[in-house]
């Protein structure tokens, strides 16, 4: 081989080696960053926001990292930075946030099917069962999705923050007679529970509760053990009355529909699939947090827990108007299968042999 041929061969080998090195060091494809703003009027101490931060965001990030095609840059707009409590539904609808945690309990006039667990108290304190039953109702009845469509949103998952509603009060309460004449705080759907037994209902929310107790806006209220400990409600209101009122599905993660439609398929798939981890984590936070909340309240604030008698529990349940029946009938007038939804929910509770005080669908 001539010197010229050797030189040409050497040059070719070097070129091939350089090309191979460059190919090995270069990324196979550029990773795309998607910016998403998540909103809630509540701080991360609230179980549904805490779960979003501790479980949902990491789960989504980890799943996307498996392919490396996309990365989400999260803007965590919580604690009222972007919207106040109750403002999440409208905030996501109008695009103030791309997605977030919506407290459906505050919007039963707009997405009324999610009122189902609030019109059926004294049925179940199994939060996991309640949430999963609402999941099955969504899959069975398209009207649930249509409700979100009207507010330019896509629901990703249902969850709940309440395993068992209890009465929290600044003075000891032991029976139904103690409700008469008292000012009692409750979220909108819970107000009929206290007014039916002689109390004056005061509209409230968890974010306002501590100050409302301290300033005597109300003397008692419908809350739950995990929140009582987490938000220190038992400092101004150290007495619990447990009537086994039951669990509710009360929170959702929803996404602005315009944002959703514009996201890559992979992002949509991951946001939806990983939402189940948020649901499970949030449920566990509430269930595990109930005993921790009671323990904290007893240790730090000398709280006392009184179990309501079975007779008073029955009396309370029977004192309520059948809001479930009225709710279902109102939905029927709007062309929504309220009676079927109510029947399916109660059937699921009966099949699970829950401690049902009233069969709301059969009266």
Descriptive keywords:
alpha/beta; six-stranded mixed sheet; five-stranded mixed sheet; 16% strand; globular; disordered N terminus; 363 residues
What does this structure look like?
The protein has 363 residues and is an alpha/beta fold. 46% of the residues lie in helices and 16% in strands. It has helices spanning 3-25, 47-65, 88-94, 127-140, 143-149, 191-195, 206-214, 225-230, 257-262, 265-273, 275-301, 310-319, 323-333, 338-351, and strands spanning 32-39, 70-77, 99-103, 153-159, 166-169, 183-186, 200-203, 220-223, 239-242, 251-256, 304-307. A six-stranded mixed β-sheet has the order 7-6-8-5-9-11. The chain has a five-stranded mixed β-sheet with strand order 2-1-3-10-4. α6 (191-195) links the parallel β6 (183-186) and β7 (200-203). α2 (47-65) runs antiparallel to α11 (275-301). The N and C termini lie far apart (102 Å).
């Amino acid at each position: 081989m001539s010197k010229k041929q050797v030189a040409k061969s050497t040059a070719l080998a070097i070129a091939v080696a350089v090309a191979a090195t460059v190919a090995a060091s270069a990324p196979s494809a550029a990773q795309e960053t998607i910016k998403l703003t998540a909103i809630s009027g509540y701080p991360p101490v609230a179980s549904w926001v805490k779960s979003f931060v501790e479980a949902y965001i990491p789960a989504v990030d980890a799943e996307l990292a498996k392919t490396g095609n996309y990365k989400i840059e999260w803007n965590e707009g919580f604690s009222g930075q972007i919207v106040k409590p109750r403002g999440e539904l409208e905030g996501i609808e109008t695009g103030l946030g791309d997605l977030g945690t919506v407290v459906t309990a505050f919007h039963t006039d707009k997405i009324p099917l999610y009122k189902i667990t609030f019109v059926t108290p004294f049925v179940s304190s199994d939060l996991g069962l309640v949430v999963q039953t609402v999941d099955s109702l969504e899959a069975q009845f398209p009207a649930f999705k249509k409700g979100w469509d009207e507010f330019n949103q896509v629901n990703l998952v249902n969850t709940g923050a309440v395993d068992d509603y209890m009465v929290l009060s600044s003075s000891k309460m032991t029976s139904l007679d103690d409700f008469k004449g008292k000012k009692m705080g409750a979220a909108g759907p819970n107000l009929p529970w206290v007014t039916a037994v002689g109390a004056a209902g005061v509209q409230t929310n968890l974010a306002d509760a501590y100050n409302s107790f301290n300033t005597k806006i109300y003397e008692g209220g419908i809350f739950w053990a995990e929140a009582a400990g987490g938000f220190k409600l038992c400092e101004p209101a150290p007495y619990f009355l447990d009537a086994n009122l039951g669990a509710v599905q009360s929170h959702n993660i929803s996404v602005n529909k315009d944002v959703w439609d514009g996201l890559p398929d992979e992002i949509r798939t991951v946001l939806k699939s990983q939402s189940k981890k948020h649901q499970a984590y949030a449920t566990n936070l509430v269930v595990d947090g109930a005993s921790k909340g009671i323990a904290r309240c007893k240790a730090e604030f000398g709280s006392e827990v009184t179990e309501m008698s079975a007779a008073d529990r029955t009396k309370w349940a029977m004192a309520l108007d059948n809001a479930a029946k009225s709710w279902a009938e109102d939905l029927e007038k709007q062309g929504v299968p309220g009676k079927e939804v109510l029947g399916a929910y109660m059937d699921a509770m009966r099949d699970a042999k829950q401690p049902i005080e009233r069969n709301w669908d059969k009266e």
